[in-house]
Amino acid sequence: MSFRKPFMVAVAACTIALPAFADGITIKDAYARSSGPSAKTGAAFFVIVNDTDQDDTLVSAKSDIAKRVETHTHIKTADGVMQMRKVEGGFPVSAHGMHTLQRGGDHLMFMGLTRPMKQGDMVTVTLTFENAGDLTVEIPVDLKRMPESGMTMKHDMDMSNGTND
After folding, report:
1. Torsion sign over Cα 158, 156, 82, 128
2. For the whole prediction, is pTM greater than 0.70?
3. First to last CA, the chain
4. For 90-114, what is each residue's pLDDT tens digit?
5. Which residue has the higher pLDDT, 12 or 104?
6. What is the dihedral of CA 80, 105, 93, 124, to 10 degrees?
7. Measured between alpha carbons, how far is 16 from 14 in angstroms, rounded to an integer?
8. Torsions phi, psi of 32, nearest 5?
9. What local confidence, expressed as pLDDT, does residue 4 receive?
10. What is the DSSP code string of the chain?
C-alpha cells in the first residue's frame, strides 16, 4: 500500500487551511479551477481580509500558470445576458473589511494557461495591493469544489425573476 497519495492529500489540506498574510492583508479559503485539461482560461477565488486601519485595493496579479491574470466580474448586459468583464482598477477592500472573490462574481481570471490545471496542483499567484504591496500565495487547484451552498451561478439565472432560463 502506498502512503504517497494520503500524504499528498494531507499536505494539500494543511495548505488550504493555512491563510496567507502580508502587512495586515490575509487571503483565506483560496482555490483555483478551470473547465478541463484543454482549457485556455482558469480562475481563482478567495476571501481578502484587510485587518488594517487603511483601505486597500487588489490592483493586479500575476502567475506563471497564465500569460495574463486579470481582475474580473460578471455583469448583466442590457439584453439580460451575463458576461465576464475586466475590472479596471481592481478590487477595493475597506479598512477592517473583506472582499470575497467567488464563482459567478468577482474573481481572478487566468488568461492563456501555460499548462493544464489538475486536481491537487498548486498555483503560485502574486497579488499586488495598492498599500500592502506584493503577497505571493499558493492556491490549490480544486476542480471538484462546488459553489457555496445556496449560491447560484449568475450566468445560469435570470436575476430579475429568480428562474432558470
Report:
1. positive
2. yes
3. 49
4. 999 999 999 999 999 999 999 999 9
5. 104
6. -140
7. 5
8. -130, 160
9. 53
10. ---HHHHHHHHHHHHHHS-EEETTEEEEEEEEEESSTT-SEEEEEEEEEE-SSS-EEEEEEEETTEEEEEEEEEEE-TTS-EEEEE-TT-EEE-TT-EEEE-TTSSEEEEEEESS---TT-EEEEEEEETTTEEEEEEEEB-SSPPPPTT---GGGEETTTTEE-
Pull the grid cell for residue 106: 468577482
Model confidence at 161: pLDDT above 60: no
Grid coordinates representing 57 are 485595493
Q: Which residue has the cell 497579488?
A: 127
Pairing of strands 82-86, 98-101: unpaired
Instruction: Place 44 in a pLDDT band, splitting at 50, 70 and 90.
Output: very high
For 31, other C-beta atoms within 10 Å of its C-beta total 18
Residue type, 67: K
d(CA 95, CA 24): 10
